[in-house]
Amino acid sequence: MKHSLEERKQRLSLTLVFAGLVFAFLFVAMLLIVVAILILIRVGALRTGESSMHPEGLVVIIALISVVAGTVLAATAGRYPLRPINGIINAMNRLAAGDFRTRLSYPRRIGRLPVVREFADSFNTMASELENTEMLRKDFIDNFSHEFKTPIVSIAGFAKLLKKGNLPPEEQKEYLDIIENESLRLSAMATNVLNMTRVENQTILTDVTEYNLSEQLRNCVLLLESKWSRKHLELNLDFDEHRICANEELMKQVWVNLLDNAVKFTPEGGSVGLAIDEDSEGISVSVSNAGSEIPEESRKRIFQKFYQADESHATEGSGIGLAIVHKVVTLHGGKVEVCSRNGRTVFTVQLPRLMIGEAVV
C-alpha cells in the first residue's frame, strides 16, 4: 500500500509537470498577444474610443496575432519538451534493434525529478536484464551445440567401428553400451528443452491431483540409480509418508532435476540427502549434497534460464534444469531456495498448506 501511494505521488508530479508546461505556453502566448495589441494601439493601427474599429475587425486581428504567436512559440519552444521524448523513442528503437547496451540519462535539472529518475531507472534495468538474457542465450546456444555435438560424434564413431566387424564380443558390447548411453543423453537434453518450452508457456496450474509425495521421491531416486551408484554415493532418505495436491508430472521434473543436480556435483563416494518436513504453514522438501559450494554471485542467478554456475562447463548440463524447477514451483504457489556453506549445498522447495493432501494411513 505504501509503495502504491508513493507511485501515485510520482505520477501526480508528472501530471503537474506537464500541466505546468501547458500553462506556461498559454501564459506566454497570451502575453505576446497583449503586447502585440498594445503595440498596434501605440502605432495607431488600433484606436480606442468612438473611432475605434468594428468589433469584427478587432476579433480578426486578435485571431491572426494568436495564430502567428502560437505558431512561432510552438516552433521555437516545442522542441525542448519534446527532446526527452525523442530521446526515449530513439533509445527504444536501438533496444528493439538489438543494442542492449542502450541506457537513458537526463540532465541534472530534469533528472532530479522523481518520476523522471524512476522512468530512467526502469528503462535501464530492463535494458540490463535484456543484455544479461541475451548473453546467457548466446552462451546457452554455444554450450548446447557443444553438448549436442559430442554424443553425436561419439555415436557415429563407435557405429563406424561396429560396421567394420571383426570385433570381439566384449568390445561390441562395450561400444553398444556407449551408443546407448549417448543416445539417452541426447534424449534427455532434448526433453529438457521441450519441458522448458512447455512450462514457460503455462500460466495456470492444471491437472492437479492428490498423490503420495514420498512414493514419488523414491521413484525419482530409483530413476537415477545408474548415476549415483556409478559414483558410489550414499543416499540418506529421511521422511515418512506424505501426500500433496499438485501436478504430478510437473513435480516429478522438479525432483528429478534437483536430484540429478545433486548427484552431478557430488564427488565420488560422497553423500546426497533427501528430507521432507511438514508443519502448519506447508510442506518442504530438501535435497542436499556434499561438494564444492556455490559462490554468492551464482546463487543470485542460478534459477535464471541458460545460466550455469559451473562456468568451466566441466560437468554436463544446459542451464535450464533449475529454471524449470523455479517455474514449476512458482506455478504451485511455492518457492525454492538454495543454501551453500560448510561444504554442503541444500535446495529447499516449499509448498503452501493448500498443496498438502490427506495424511497417509
Q: Quote the beta fraction.
A: 5-15%
According to DSSP, the number of beta strands is: 7
Q: Helical stretch count?
A: 11
CATH top level class name of the largest domain: Alpha Beta
Please name the CATH topology of the largest domain: Heat Shock Protein 90
Rg, Å, rounded: 34 Å
Distance between the termini: 45 Å
The largest sheet has its strands arranged as 2-4-5-7-6
Taken from the alpha-carbon principal axes, the silhouette is: elongated
Fraction in helix? 55-70%
Question: Mean of the pLDDT scores?
Answer: 77
Quickly give the CATH architecture of the largest domain: 2-Layer Sandwich
Order of helices and strands: HHHHHHEHHEEHEEHHEE
Summarize the structure.
Helix content is 61%, strand content 13%.
Give an account of the 3D structure.
With 361 residues, the protein is α+β, with helices and mostly antiparallel strands. The protein has three domains: 2-130, no CATH class; 139-191, Helix Hairpins, CATH 1.10.287; 208-355, Heat Shock Protein 90 (2-Layer Sandwich), CATH 3.30.565.10. Helix content is 61%, strand content 13%. It contains eleven helices and seven strands. The strands form two sheets. A five-stranded mixed β-sheet has the order 2-4-5-7-6, covered by helices on one side. The relative contact order is 0.08. The mean pLDDT is 77.
